[in-house]
Write a structure and sequence with these properties.
221 residues, alpha/beta, Rossmann fold, two-stranded antiparallel ribbon, 9 helices, 7 strands, 13% strand, binds adenosine-5'-diphosphate, binds adenosine monophosphate
């Protein structure tokens, strides 16, 4: 299966991506994580991307697309993948569509996570993430079992530099200005499915897997 998770920052894409990727045995390609890895390794790409990320702005399309096309060339992506945080602009969506059309492997579905804007800031400012395996925690809603370390791999959790209220507001502006229009882009192509992302994490996972099972059954029929 080839799928995209769409939704504003804090909608729960990363949280659900980990569960879905495991359930369907597919690689999770999170462009934000890839940029953060580059930034940690202090590559040229990482340095350039970090300046945008710290301000809550989108990284320019050419940098994103170069990184994604490299990632898609890896063998593990040949049988399917899950994109978390990509595409985020129409130019990125068109580039992805063209790339997949050339390969004869179009997207199967785009899941849009719906969340009221009032929930977003409180989800984001208390988010903690595992830089090793991408697990996502929340100090109140989904705390780790042991203070400040990942339940799965024991890595110390991080509070992202862009997870402050001021930067989240900027990221939301970027979402409304540039990413939200992808909902129409994918709706027009008959690929968009909605999932309510308020409620317990396991419940949102159950709703998402129900949508994906439906798509997989449709493909098999
Ligand atoms: P995104 O990847 O869309 O930015 P995340 O998956 O990182 O969002 O979730 C943002 C924050 O909200 C995290 O701290 C996460 O633990 C928390 N969260 C995710 N899903 C839920 C949920 N269903 N209920 C409460 N908190 C959630
Ligand atoms: P995320 O981890 O998805 O919340 O992304 C964190 C930051 O990385 C964003 O605010 C952007 O600065 C950058 N980023 C991640 N993915 C993209 C993308 N597809 N296009 C542009 N910028 C991105």
């Amino acid at each position: 299966m080839r799928l995209v998770l769409l939704g504003p920052p804090g909608a729960g894409k990363g949280t659900q991506a980990v569960h879905i990727a495991r359930a369907f045995q597919m690689p999770r390609i999170a462009t934000g994580d890839l940029f953060r890895e580059h930034a940690t390794q202090e590559t040229d790409l990482g340095r350039e991307a970090k300046a945008y990320m710290d301000r809550g702005e989108l990284v320019p399309d050419d940098l994103v697309l170069r990184m994604v096309s490299e990632r898609l060339r890896r063998a593990d992506a040949s049988d399917g993948f899950l994109f978390d945080g990509f595409p985020r602009t129409v130019a990125q969506a068109i580039a992805l569509e063209d790339h997949l059309a050339d390969a004869g492997t179009p997207l199967d579905v785009v899941v849009r996570f719906n969340i009221p804007e009032s929930e977003i800031v409180r989800r984001i400012v208390n988010r903690r993430t595992c830089p090793t395996d991408g697990s996502v925690y929340h100090l109140d809603f989904a705390p780790p079992e042991h203070d400040d370390v990942c339940d799965l791999c024991g890595t110390p959790l991080v509070h992202r530099a862009d997870d402050t209220e001021a930067v989240v507001r900027r990221r939301l502006e970027e979402y409304h200005a540039k990413t939200e229009r992808l909902e129409y882009f994918y709706w027009e192509r008959g690929l968009l499915r909605d999932v309510e992302s308020v409620g317990p994490v396991e419940e949102v996972t159950r709703r998402t897997l129900a949508v994906l099972d439906d798509i997989a059954d449709g493909d098999a029929a």
